[in-house]
Amino acid sequence: MFRKIICAFLAALTVFACFVSCGNGSGNADTTEPADNTTPAVTEPVTDVPDPSLAMVGDDGKTSYYIVVGRDCGKGVFSAANDLKGEMYDAFMTSFWVKRDDDVEPRDTEILIGVSTREGTKEAFEKLDSNSYSITVVDKKIIISGSTDACVAYAVDIFIDKYINGKTDLKNLLIENEVGTVPDGFALLENGWNDMTDYPGTADIDLKYMVYKPANYDPDKKYPVFIFMHGNGSRGDDNSHITKDSASIIPTLTSSEKYKNDIIIIAPQCLKSEQWVTCDHTLGEYTSKSITTCLSEAVQIFDYWLERISYDENRVYLWGNSMGSYASWDLMQRYPGKYAAAVMVAGCGDIAFAPQLAKCNIWIHHGDIDTTVPYSGNKKMYDELVKNGAGDNVKFTTYPGKGHSIFTAVGKDMTVIDWLFSQTLK
Predict the structure, then answer these.
(1) Which residues of 279-296 are buried (b: 16+ CB within 10 A; e: fewer)?
(2) pTM above threshold 0.85
(3) Which domains can be identified in the chain, with CATH numbers?
(4) Residue 363 predicted with pLDDT over 70
């Protein structure tokens, strides 16, 4: 509109100039009205408005865009960036490179993920509220930001779903700037078991782990939390620990009409090269030392989710098998007042902490001919607990003629399970 007004004004000015310069011989302007046969000024159509879409692929079928991830972003964000790379290849039929920000020189055409050294990423981050994300376009750059790594990864997923997923033969993208709130991380999980290997919020932790979400999870309800600590033979990095025969407690709970929709389960897996605690399990005794890397990372996982789920803080439970029983004893004494009760199967605790642990709710189980982890260790621990004032809150069950592999029997015993879930801190 503004351009049309200018063009009309210039046309009128030209006509006026002609009247002034064309006189009647006396140097005065001719005052005779001209015939009304002038041609109206023509306004050319506006052609310099830029195309609002971003040209992702050139005429040669290749892209000049890089996917650039901030150096401080965790593995979960980098994994999300690689997912974006794969989806974009399917949509544009050309390869996109994923780079850390200090591995490639800045260019005009970039998809910037997370806070980096690139201009605009820090500013985008600083505008965000907690638990939120943004997708914005500045010139030819796409900036994907989030208040946490998990929020950044969520924003990448939003970007994929909104602009990339399911599309083919794309050339351009028309991006709409948006800011949004990230839903509760736990609410986004599937009902039942979730393999958390690539979960952005804990991707910097080397431990693999599984999380069980009950069907019809209600954030307004307070759920008990069951933590499963497996034994030595279930170590690894494939999350197979919940499927072992020794993990019979797991299918017992998840198939029980009483418990399957009313509990949350967190089950970390110790790495093959490490142990939950530092000791020789065959000695039947344990002296507490500094927390191991694996157990420390398991605690980080517990703390991460306990901040994000609706749970009953008076009903967090431990179940430990063999090496996992050592870990459960360690957790009970290292974090007093955190766990409501524990079932210890064929392991051992540090008797130096018996005065403290005598007040806890603990049910110990051991086969009396166990040659893997001697029965004597748990029996001695129980005696020390009783000596320090333990009463009905501490139980000890001996399995006559049984060795180390009593896990299946204990894991199917509803009396033990019902006892565990009936205990509270207050």
Answers:
(1) bebeebbbebeebbebbe
(2) no
(3) 54-181 (3.30.379.10), 192-422 (3.40.50.1820)
(4) yes
